[in-house]
Amino acid sequence: MRLQDIDTPRLRARMRDGGVTLRLSPFTVRVRSDIPHLADDIATMYRDFELVDEREFVDFHVAVLRSPHWLSRLQGRAEFWFDGQRSFTPLPAAQALAMLEWGINWCIAAHAHQYLLIHAAVLERGGRALLMPAPPGSGKSTLCAALAHRGWRLLSDELGLLDMTTGLVHGMARPINLKNASIPLIRAFAPEAVFSASMPNTSKGTVALVRAPQASIQARLTPARPAWVVLPAWRAESPAALMPIERAQAFMGLAEQSFNYDVHGQAGFQALGRLVGSCGCYRFEYSRLDEALTHFDRLAQAAPASAPDPLPEHAR
Amino acid sequence: MPVPVWHCRQPIQDVLLTWEGEQHAVFFDPVSGDTHLIAALGAQLAEWLAVAPMDRDQLLHRLTHDVDWDELPSPDALAELLNSHLHRLADIHLLAESPATTPVEALAEEPSA
Amino acid sequence: MSAERRRPLLVRVLLQPAVAVGLSLTDWDLLLRQARRSNLAGKLAEQMERGGWLDSLPEPVRPHLRAALLLSRRQAQMLRREVDLLRRTLAELPGPLILLKGAAYVLGGHAPAPGRMFSDIDLLIPLEQLPRCETTLLVHGWDFDEGLDAYDQRYYRDWMHELPPLHHKRRGTSLDLHHALLPPTARTPLDSRALFDAPRALPGFPGVFELPPEDMLLHSAAHLFHEGELPNGLRDLFDLDALLREFGAIEGFWPRLTARARRIGLTRPLWLALRYTRMLLDTPWPDALLEELGPPPGTLALRLLDACYRRALRPAHDSCRLPGHELAEAALYVRSHWLRMPFGLLARHLLRKAWTRMTATPEVPKVDTP
């Protein structure tokens, strides 16, 4: 059974009472909430995801609940709960969906150490995966949203799960996080995309979520073999340019953007080493989306064995 | 008086990653769990020392003759370069000098924030 | 069997790890949540691994336990490094620098160490070295929490036995500096100087010490049965249980323990520690011990204490809450502060804490980032 098979009043009731359990492969997450509009948002964003029987093992029990604290409640705030404990500062209930997404990311980042977790956009084309590790503000989510609607399969917009044994990267095809100017930009770029309501005044500005394309959701159980590591940077007025970088630099970029590289010690070091060793490593500057996409198309069309030429001295 | 000799603190094949033609390498220090970005030259020193320990003069000799310099630095500059690399690599526990009575060891004892 | 009498799943498993092997997935779901909330996930994972059961547990369960193992082991590694850096930073102080609690268990290789998770380092130094220690640390990149106002600073410094927690700006480590076992304003007369009688060197860390076994155990008991807030109550109780078992095997330990308790003035916390470890965790110790620790609390007081501690020392998860839990915690909080502060100070302090609680918001947790 999928989430879309439950009607709205029943979904709201279930979420209020015990929660619904979603298969966010590879994790099983139970979500509870007493905020009716959050139930509606989840119904939209996770429409194609399977529901799990209530008796199954749950990896993360989460909830977004109205603040019990009298002052916070008066101010219309809600809180994210994990394992029965409040985890973050109360936020306006209007931001419930954003809170849920960030909260789930946090649960995974703090606990899912069976993977090497990388703060990166991950997309797949022709059986090969593109990893874009980047700090916030680099334009990676905008690029990711665009690529996901132009022939690339979305694995994740911010959470790449690297299996250190197989070297494959997994994704959950959860909603894409966009903020501020990216929102109208992607609306125009991909009119077919399904957006949540915009949530203003979050700590990141105005935030909206875009449902992953259905094909991506259906294929989300399939991991992909990393082929490219691209460090993106949006720069105003900049013509799109893809420049090879040293593997050591790509390595450090991935390690810096990893949530748990530190925890894995030598195994993490070797896993990232194998990853960059088998990938083409670049940095990418852009200001216009259409230009950007052309470069990625070219990248995808190039034959595999895509090791960059060693940088000549004068280019450093 | 014994001449101080430099050596690798551990086998490097699992903790040092280099790539042909690149200017940087990465090293994992199993003691602290830290990962470091190091210059290719430093990685080269470690690779020589992994085969056999050497003293400063021997290292200087190899630096002079076995590196593909675009422009060979002066002997003084080369000595400076060697010193600064050895110092850094000792700091991050890739290399060590024995016997441990040299200025480099004492430097490594300083508290660092 | 009433809820009170039935032990929580987490406790049953930790006392008899083999029980875990037959648990259903639903049980495991609950067990893991109880363990995480009580900060005992690492301990549970270590037991599963040590017993050789980890690989035969249900598949969805294993990643959670492995993750806990990874984290606690990484923390132990980082702890060693932090302590090493600290000892070099403070090398010019006469010392001794004495590690307390979790850091001492791990670096000293004691029974509570496997799987232990902790978020800060507790260090004990002689009172007269405190100012110099503080200055040295501030110079080397340590800093106090910005959110502390003058009142909080005074609370920590003048009334309690510690500086406000220090954080290293770049590395993110948390450090609690103590100069005494309990605050100088505490009611029970305490000989904290005695703590520095016989520190034991920690191999590999020149200048850093741990307490001898009797003092280490007494400190653990004092910490648990004097402290106000018990988020780690069950974990600390398990620490006590582990220490009692480890040290109980040492020749002549028990008489030394009781003598030391009388010498320092900690007979009451030890009495409580013995009582509750036996009651809740079946910890073995010679029955005759209690008689050597002075008169027990009066019957009424004891019933109240039992009610409080039985509730507060359960896993910190909703599934384990007994009715009256909040009251129990509140009562313990008042009791601990009663023990620490003269009455006038206490009222003012509690009033202020209550106000801060009403208006404060929970902190954002740290996520492990390199």
What would you say this structure looks like, in words?
The complex is a heterotrimer of chains A (316), B (113) and C (370). In chain A, the strands form four sheets. In chain A, strands 1, 2, 3, 4, 5 and 6 form a six-stranded mixed sheet that branches. Chain A contains ten helices and 18 strands. In chain A, helix 1 (8-17) crosses helix 2 (36-45) and helix 5 (140-148) packs parallel to helix 6 (182-189). Chain A has 316 residues and is of the alpha+beta class. Chain A has two domains: 3-111, no CATH class; 116-315, no CATH class. By secondary structure, chain B is an alpha+beta fold. Chain B has a single domain (5-108), classed as Outer Surface Protein A, domain 3. Chain B has four helices and five strands; from the N terminus they run E-E-E-E-H-H-H-E-H. In chain B, the strands form two sheets. In chain B, strands 2-3-4 form a three-stranded antiparallel sheet. In chain B, strands 1-5 form a two-stranded antiparallel sheet. In chain B, strand 3 and strand 4 (35-39) form a beta hairpin. In chain B, helix 2 (56-66) crosses helix 3. Chain C has 370 residues and is of the alpha/beta class. Chain C is 51% helix and 6% strand. Chain C is built from 14 helices and seven strands. Chain C has helices at 9-15, 25-37, 41-50, 62-89, 101-107, 130-139, 150-159, 213-226, 233-248, 253-264, 267-281, 299-312, 325-340, 343-359, and strands at residues 97-100, 121-124, 142-144, 166-168, 174-178, 200-201, 208-210. In chain C, helix 8 (213-226) packs across helix 10 (253-264) and helix 8 crosses helix 11. Chains A and C meet through strand 5, helix 4 and helix 9 of A and helix 2 and helix 4 of C.
> Hey, which two chains have the biggest interface?
A-C, 36 and 32 residues
Instruction: Using the CA coordinates, give the radius of gyration of chain B.
Output: 14 Å
Shape of chain A: globular
* Helix/strand order of chain B: EEEEHHHEH
Runs of chain A in which pLDDT lies below 50 for 5 or more consecutive residues are 306-316
Sheet/helix structural class of chain A:
alpha+beta
**If you compute it from the alpha carbons, what radius of gyration of chain A comes out, rounded to the nearest whole angstrom?**
20 Å
